[in-house]
Write a structure and sequence with these properties.
The chain has 153 residues and is an all-alpha fold. The protein has 2 domains: 3-93, Hypothetical Protein Yqey, Chain: A, domain1 (Orthogonal Bundle); 102-152, Arc Repressor Mutant, subunit A (Orthogonal Bundle). It is built from 7 helices and no strands. Helix 3 (52-75) packs antiparallel against helix 4 and helix 5 packs across helix 7 (141-152).
Length: 153
């Protein structure tokens, strides 16, 4: 079962169980997936379907938006809305790969530095290019970038 099919199946289950929060989040994710598919169909053909990796990218992007909303609501003192966003983020995390710890990411950064032979800040692009496919969905790009910069700088 593809990730997209699992989301659809879970949305049907949420509908049957009258779980409005889960249903709304999954509907929004399905909407974002469909939006990207329609956009890509103009380039890749009429019957194009997203791969699991592309679907994962959509979910990751949506989860990142939730994290930003949590920060904004918390700064504004709107803890009720921040809690709602946290619940949505928890639901999205069920579809994302297990997040790597900072130590695991650091180890992969060290490996990428050795692999690319990077020694200065000018090599940051090479390191990120080598790292990000390995970390797709399993680590925040901003955190990875900060670690690479600290190791190179």
């Amino acid at each position: 079962m593809s990730l997209k099919e699992k989301i659809s199946s879970d949305a049907i289950t949420a509908l049957r169980q009258k779980d409005k929060v889960t249903l709304n989040v999954l509907r929004m994710v399905k909407s974002k997936i469909l939006e990207l598919e329609v956009k890509l169909r103009t380039k890749k053909g009429k019957g194009y379907q997203l791969s699991d990796e592309e679907t994962l990218g959509v979910i990751t992007s949506y989860a990142k938006q939730r994290k930003q909303s949590i920060d904004s609501y918390t700064e504004a003192g709107r803890h009720d809305l921040a809690d709602q966003e946290k619940n949505e983020l928890d639901l999205l995390n069920q579809y994302l790969p297990k997040q790597l710890s900072r130590e695991e990411v650091e180890k992969l950064v060290d490996e990428a530095l050795a692999e690319t032979g990077a020694s200065s800040m000018q090599d940051i692009g090479k390191v990120m290019k080598a790292l990000m496919p390995k970390l797709k969905g399993a680590a925040d790009g901003k955190t990875v970038n900060e670690l690479v910069r600290s190791k190179l700088g």
